[in-house]
Amino acid sequence: MKNGKPHLTLKLCGPRGFCAGVDRAIQIVVLALKKYGAPVYVRHEIVHNRYVVEGLEALGAIFVKELDEIPQTNQPVIFSAHGVPKSVPENAKALNLNFLDATCPLVSKVHKQALRHLRHGRHVILVGHAGHPEVIGTMGQLPKGTISLIETVEQASAFYAPDGKQLGFVTQTTLSVDDTASILEKLAERFPDLAEPAAESICYATTNRQEAVKQAAPGADHFLIVGAPNSSNSKRLVEVALKSGAKKAVLVQNAGDIVWSELDKASVIGLSAGASAPEILVDEIISALRLRFETSIELAETAQENELFPVMRQLRDTPLDAADMAFVNG
Predict the structure, then answer these.
(1) Whole-angstrom Cα distance, residue 76 to residue 73?
(2) In 3D, which of 51, 52, 6, 12 has the Cα closest to residue 28?
(3) In terms of CB atoms within 10 Å, which end of the chain has fewer, N or C?
């Protein structure tokens, strides 16, 4: 104990927080607001984080569940980073809406891989979580009856190919790497000719964040994952922390969510953030820990990320000032 505070080792994960796809999606909203003025409409949460959504609302973004909530307008409508079914842009065209698609390029790549399987005459298996916007968007790329969702090893064990068709798989980009491997092993065991996608479906950012948490989790008394309750990749980080040796792991949206009594006897705490959580929320938690503990930080870093996904051409001539960049970068 020093200065009346108990000592704490904070294992801070890297990479953490915003990925290139999230950064691009937020940029698209900010740039659209600068170029076209407010309001700019966004179908669904642009990314799964209330801090980001509320910040964009303050700038003039209006979030809607469906396109029919939008009045007749020439203002742009933006589709979220998770991707949308083909029916959504078709509907936007029918309504004469000016739309911008902020789908993460890595999600778009999964869409293309699924369509590639279909072109080769395969029934497509999507490994993912029912009801997640990305899953809805991917399944909506293909005609009904040509794609099946599998969520668990048990479902993989019970699945049968329709009409003896050849099979190909893709996965949601934000899954647990280890859990997905177990499902794919079962499918490969039952269907030896199962065709893989031409490129890995689980995105680099998901893998990198999980690997960092795996490194930090052994010996951790408590693990804090910054993210939203509806963020798939953030929830997977909680699961990975527990499976990798953390005694306890919880999802928090900010420092206000922390149950401090649970940390009373902790001497080692892990900290990471999902791919849609801004760094300002991580900084807020570190500051709150330092108020209560004599804190030393150990970096658990497993990769460096330098990926950059450019925005669409019609927004590239719109400059971002320092304040814009600070918001975009979290």
Answers:
(1) 8
(2) 52
(3) N
Q: Please indicate, yes or no, whether residues 213 and 281 belong to a single structural domain of this protein.
A: yes
Choosing from 126, 161, 190, the residue where a domain stops is 190
Task: Tell me the pLDDT of the chain (330 aa) as tens digits.
Answer: 666 789 999 999 999 999 999 999 999 999 999 999 999 999 999 999 999 999 999 999 999 999 999 999 999 999 999 999 999 999 999 999 999 999 999 999 999 999 999 999 999 999 999 999 999 999 999 999 999 999 999 999 999 988 878 999 999 999 999 999 999 999 999 999 999 998 888 899 999 999 999 999 999 999 999 999 999 999 999 999 999 999 999 999 999 999 999 998 999 999 999 999 999 999 999 999 999 999 999 999 999 999 999 999 999 998 878 776 667 776
For residue 150, the cross-strand partners are 127
Would you say residue 1 lies in a domain? no
Domain co-membership, 72 together with 30: yes
* Own/partner pairs, 69-75, CB within 8 angstroms, 24+ separation: 70/41, 70/95, 70/97, 72/96, 73/41, 73/97, 74/98, 75/36, 75/37, 75/39, 75/40, 75/41
User: What is the set of active-site residues?
Assistant: 134
User: Rounded CA gap, 267 and 222, in Å?
Assistant: 9
How far apart are the C-alpha atoms of 138 and 130, rounded to whole Å?
A: 11
Are residues 169 and 136 part of one domain?
Answer: yes
Residue type, 14: G
Distance of CA 107 to the CA centre of its chain: 10
DSSP code of residue 89: H
- On whether both 53 and 121 belong to a single domain, the answer is no
Cα-Cα-Cα-Cα dihedral sign, residues 21, 25, 27, 28: positive
Q: Which domain range does residue 185 map to?
A: 106-190
CATH number for position 266: 3.40.1010.20
Overall pTM > 0.90: yes
- In a shared domain, residues 229 and 297: yes
Question: Domain check: are 159 and 221 in the same one?
Answer: no
Number of domains in the chain: 3
